[in-house]
Amino acid sequence: TGINFAKYDEILVEVSGANPPTAVLTFDEAGLCDTLSRNVSRSGYVKPTPVQKYGIPIIMSGRDLMACAQTGSGKTAAFLLPILQKMMADGVAASRFSEVQEPEAIIVAPTRELINQIYLEARKFAYGTCVRPVVVYGGISTGYSIREVLKGCNVLCGTPGRLLDIIGRGKVGLSKVRYLVLDEADRMLDMGFEPAMRRLVASPGMPPKEDRQTLMFSATYPDEIQRLAAEFLKTDYLFLVVGQVG
Ligand code: ADP
Ligand code: MG
């Protein structure tokens, strides 16, 4: 893989906010069930990267998180593993066909390439569980996206526009959403998706921030991201910075 662990062992990590949980040193300490642990090993992951060591226990503990770490530092597994673990611990219903789907998790990323990578990781980690991830993005037909969603959807991954489209058509109800991930938040701003993110969090049925866990990831931390974090995250959110952030 592209992870250079020699570089990470001396990287600077900073967590701000009240009472952060202790970082884990290994995947064994992360509290993953056997199926997830096996899928992690099968992915060739031997030890967690810094954003995983700190991010996984923060998310497991239920706290909201704004995490800044450079591209290639392992942010995807940092949020997918604890979300999948918590979904399974809470006894998520096995996915099945229905005309309206009510996913427990929504993951947003700005481009089809980025959201598809997240989806493929989610499929890999959810292998052998009853959790069904689905991905939707522009460029494939809306009809196809909707058919995939209606087959069953616990984790809905999408680009902002296509997500809003499918939600607007009444195919996805948001009242069961417990986890909302805004990945590559800085790029979403650069690409003009701020109004779409606002519409998503304010969509009918979306639980208020007090009733969901919101996780934001970014490679940089400009003022606009701080502003969005203050708006979308609970006031006691934790702020994790790994390495040099622009
Ligand atoms: P980011 O989202 O921070 O840019 P990714 O989550 O896409 O980074 O991870 C970058 C690459 O490193 C991917 O190929 C991923 O599968 C791999 N990777 C992530 N975590 C680990 C790990 N703990 N051990 C080995 N490889 C990993
Ligand atoms: Mg990423």
Automatic annotation (TrEMBL):
Enzyme class: hydrolase
Occurrences of domain Helicase ATP-binding (ranges): 56-239
GO CC, one annotated term: P granule
Keywords on record: ATP-binding, Helicase, Hydrolase, Meiosis, Nucleotide-binding
Transmembrane segment boundaries: none
Family, as annotated: Belongs to the DEAD box helicase family. DDX4/VASA subfamily.
Reaction it catalyzes: ATP + H2O = ADP + phosphate + H(+)
Protein name per Swiss-Prot or TrEMBL: RNA helicase
UniProt domain DEAD-box RNA helicase Q: residue ranges: 25-53
Motif Q motif, residue numbers: 25-53
Any GO BP: meiotic cell cycle
EC number: 3.6.4.13
Full-sequence portion shown in this chain: 23 to 268 of 480
Any GO molecular function: mRNA binding
Source species of the chain: Lepisosteus oculatus
